[in-house]
Amino acid sequence: MRLERLRTLHRTDPVGIDRTPEFSWNIVSALHNTMQTSYRLTVDDGERVVWDSGIVHSDQQSFIEYGGSPLRSRTPYRWSVRVEDNHNGIATASAGFETAFLDDDWVGRWVESTIPRPQAEGDWGHGTQPPAVEFLRRFEIRDGFRRARLYATALGAYRPSLNGARIDDRELAPEFSVYRSRLYYQTYDVTTQLRAGDNELSVYVGDGWYLCPATRPLSHELRTMPAILFQLEVHYEDGSVETIASDGTETCRTGPVRSSDLYWGERYDETAPFGDPQPVEVIHLGYGNLVAQPIDPIRPVELLPARTVDTSPDGDVIVDFGQIIAGRVRVRIDAPAGTEVTLEHFEVRTVDGGYFNSTYAGQKDVYVSDGTPREYEPLFTFHGFRYVRVSGLPVVRAEAFTAVLLTTPKERTGFFECSDAGLNRLHENVLWSQRNNMMSIPTDCPTREKAGFTGDIQLYTPAAFVNEDVTSFLTAWLQNLAAEQRDHGVVPMTVPFTTPYERLSLTMSEQYGAEGVTGIAGWSDAAVIVPWEMYRATGNTMVLREAFASMSSWCDTIIATARDERGSCDLPEELDRHLWNTGFHFGEWLIPSQQQKNGDFETTKESAAYVAPFFGYRSIRLLADIAGILGLDDERDRYAAHAEVMRDAIQRVFMTGDELPTKLMGGYVLAFAFDLVPAERWQAYAARFVELIEANDGLLDTGFLATPYLLDVLVRIGRADLAIDLLWERRQPSWLYQVDMGATAIWENWDAIAPDGTPGVSSFDHYAFGCIDDWICREVAGIRAGVPGYKHSVIAPRTDTRLTWCSRSLLTEFGELAVRWTQDELEVVVPCNTTATVHWRGERHEVGSGSHRF
Ligand code: RAM
After folding, report:
1. What angle (nearest 5°) sits at the alpha carbon of residue 243, between those of residues 239 and 248?
2. For the chain, what are the domain ranges?
3. Is the CB of 23 under 6 A from ligand 1?
4. Distances from the Cα of 489 to the Cαs of 85, 492, 512, 525, 611, in angstroms?
5. Which 8-state DSSP code applies to residue 400?
6. Identical fold between 2-99 and 792-853
7. Is the pLDDT of residue 250 over 90?
8. Which of 161, 271, 577, 585 has the most CB atoms lying inside 10 A of its own CB?
9. Can you tell me the mean pLDDT for 665-684?
10. Ligand 1 pocket, 766 CB below 6 A?
11. From 3.40.630.10, 3.40.50.720, 2.60.120.260, 1.10.10.10, which CATH number describes the 110-292 domain?
12. Which atom of ligand 1 is nearest to the CA of 445?
């Protein structure tokens, strides 16, 4: 038996944390039926043990919270665990973490550029922002140091260098967050880059999210100048510590980055020298909003060489990378001084060989050469693209171009492969959209909006977990969500909430007779559903506890809105007051038969009529369950009672006849999925739902909010055959239609490309409809969590004759759970410390850990 995958706060050896750590490990053993019987965890700082859990007779091996004496600021720790199992096996292993600032440790002062900077106009800007600013600071240090850490952050996106070399390869720090209350600072190990004597620290600051017009924060305290804060701490052999901190003695200047914008792109001019150093100004921002970066930093995680170069009918030179990614292009340029090279990024080609983008902003990077051959990659922007139109270069060779995928690195947890190339590609597309849209926060698309839409991640969380470990990533995002909740707990449509979306929310509220920013069904409910799905995927009760205040304040808003706002005057008041049926909602969003025309929201209304009350009920019902799990019995009873009256009101308003008052499939899907259908209507509604699909030529007609439950509901009403047919459907709208049309990521809209190849107006890289990947994992491969977190799993493949074999693995909190089946045989690998029920060919087997063949 041995221990693997030791994680602290679900990260590997994190440096610079300011939260109480939790610990996890996996057990691997050659013996079957291995269960952990006890563990003992110790934490030490190199000199003394600060926590000894003692022997704990428990099978818990994840989310074990630190319980020792207070941790010290800026200190490296080791933790060790000793595990015993039921076969008398004993194993030990250790890992590390290092704290950042836990006390009032900041002495550095915020310093701001004094170089005049005109303000961009409009919500989205025009890509004409002023140059990036480099801050410089010289300092001297003594010989004999053994450890040095730089703590730093900025308003804007920054790239630090020491003595002319980049400190590491992280990108676009500080990441996108609710800066007003959660601005992340970074911790860098600079021990090997410092030298005794003279040193120079450079911090080059582009616009990033903070200064970009489309993403700048709402706060009226918003600053409009690039600014930095840093503190370098040098620990000497003799035990002394020297601190060099930003203090106003820095200088600043502009250089080759002439303009940078996350949407429009960057202009980099090698012929523009760095200007004369200008003074900086000390500003008083305080340290109250500073948080040690809680997730792994954005990095270049994959490089894709260009596949081909060709010329479009219009004579444009197009480089194809073969895959839609989020990131940017790295290109070797050898051109005469003054040559201006333009890179314009596109997602798809049109039938006539042109190219197309779903974004309004240019996605255009410009490089001006000084005649020296160099490799260029933009510093302060990223794009969503597969193709790049190149102009300004006399010769374009594919070998000179590489696409760089930028994302928050996460541990891959899932692998899927089967005998069908279409399903394999579909899975790949899901994974790509996931990686392309998880750069510091979960976003809708990396092209048009790059925004933290709450609805998209709400519905996608289960699928996210079957592909990557998103625990630390989503925990951090939920903290941002809580920080963004307004006075009454309202969760906005995006987190972070930014100026353009605040404006949109206010406009929509006004049109729908509401006031201020109001909650949106299925979007704001992310506050409850995301933590709930995190718990289901990993057994994580910490996140439920931590998010409880945020969830309950959101649910209280639903209850109050239903009570105080009169929805329909046709309804008796005693029913209306339990229905969330006012304000603006996106409805299911992007139902094929209800497509929006000219950006109006008329078509969202029909589905909004059921989406709002149903999701309102759903959130409150889940909150009651969550309170129960946390042992909060009063809250459980209170919210359960609210849920009960809401369900009753929904049934009395929507479910009195033999069909729902809508012809949309999603109404049925959500009614079944949320257990709203009264027993006496079950048969009729199931029949009606199937009729709707049949009347639609066997095709689905659901949008964002209902699609995740569509196939499950069919299985539940006894029509698994229809669910499987929808999965295998190749006509539009369907998942495999996208694949057949050459998609390399998941489309935002079912009709993103018409059968004749004409692209529509939507994005080609939205993970939302990728929610199917979770269903494939559970139903086709047959891996299901028997209890939240897979302590017990249920393996029940749906062997479909359209597949000759299927193989799926899932790295659970306990380790790898794997299934491989052919038409004749099933192989299952069950992780240590768990059990499984296997259903195969009409038989049921109870098994323990290890590999099994049936
Ligand atoms: C679109 C976004 C997102 C969706 C909202 C309602 O513009 O791309 O996917 O959540 O609108």
Report:
1. 170
2. 2-99, 110-292, 299-407, 420-656+744-776, 657-727, 792-853
3. no
4. 46, 9, 20, 11, 20
5. G
6. no
7. yes
8. 585
9. 98
10. yes
11. 2.60.120.260
12. 8
Residue 771 CA to residue 814 CA, distance in Å, equals: 23
Can you tell me the distance from the alpha carbon of 542 to that of 492, in angstroms, rounded to the nearest whole number?
24
User: Which atom of ligand 1 approaches the CA of 768 most closely?
Assistant: 9
The pLDDT > 90 percentage for the chain reads 93
What's the token pair of residue 690?
Answer: 């199937």
Ligand 1, pocket-test mutation among 456, 497, 584, 601, most atoms within 8 A of CB: 456
Q: 584 CB under 6 A from ligand 1?
A: no
Q: Cis peptide leading into 496, omega within 30 of 0? A: yes
Cβ of 444 less than 6 Å from ligand 1: yes
Instruction: Look at the block and give the residue holding tokens 């699909």.
Output: 693
150: left (phi over 0), alpha (psi -120 to 50) or beta: beta
Predicted confidence at residue 185, as pLDDT, reads: 98
210 lines ligand 1 (CB under 6 A): no
Token pair for 438 = 């998880």
CATH topology of domain 792-853: Maltose phosphorylase, domain 3 (2.60.420)
CA of 44 relative to ligand 1 center, distance in Å: 47
Ligand 1 center to 589 CA (angstroms): 8
Tell me which residue has its CA closest to atom 7 in ligand 1: 449
Quote the Cα angle for 596-597-599, to 5°: 80
Alpha helices in 191-336 (DSSP H): 208-211
Q: Has residue 650 got a pLDDT over 90?
A: yes
Q: What's the gap in Å between 850 CA and the centre of ligand 1? A: 44
Which atom of ligand 1 approaches the CA of 589 most closely?
Answer: 6
**What is the length of the chain?**
854
Kindly report, residue by residue over 315-346, the tens digit of the pLDDT: 999 999 999 999 999 999 999 999 999 999 99
Per-residue pLDDT at 599: 66
- CATH 2.60.40.10 assigned to 2-99: yes
pLDDT at 220 exceeding the cut of 70: no
Atom of ligand 1 at shortest range from CA of 454: 10
pLDDT for position 580: 97
CA 162 to ligand 1 centroid distance, Å = 41
Cα of 429 vs centre of ligand 1, distance in Å, is 19
Which residues are known catalytic residues? Answer: 449, 748
How far is Cα 24 from Cα 518, in angstroms, rounded to an integer? 39
Confidence of residue 421 (pLDDT cuts 50, 70, 90): very high
Residue nearest to atom 3 of ligand 1 (CA): 444
Q: For residue 712, what are its two tokens?
A: 């499950």
Cβ atoms of 24 and 5 closer than 8 Å: yes
Classify domain 299-407 at the CATH class level: mainly beta
Report CA(444)–ligand 1 centroid distance (Å): 6
Comparing C-alpha atoms, which of 546, 689, 521, 490 is closest to residue 618?
521
Alpha carbon of residue 640 to chain centroid: 30
What are the distances in angstroms from CA 391 to CA 283, 341, 345, 364, 399?
43, 6, 12, 11, 16
Least reliable range by pLDDT among 455-459, 593-597, 719-723, 846-850:
593-597
Report the nearest atom of ligand 1 relative to the CA of 453.
Answer: 10
Is residue 382 within 8 A of residue 327, CB to CB? The reply is: yes
Give the Cα separation of 824 and 830 in Å (integer).
20
| Class level of CATH domain 420-656+744-776 | mainly alpha
The confidence band for 98, taking pLDDT boundaries of 50, 70 and 90, is: very high
Distance (Å, whole) CA 402 – CA 387: 11
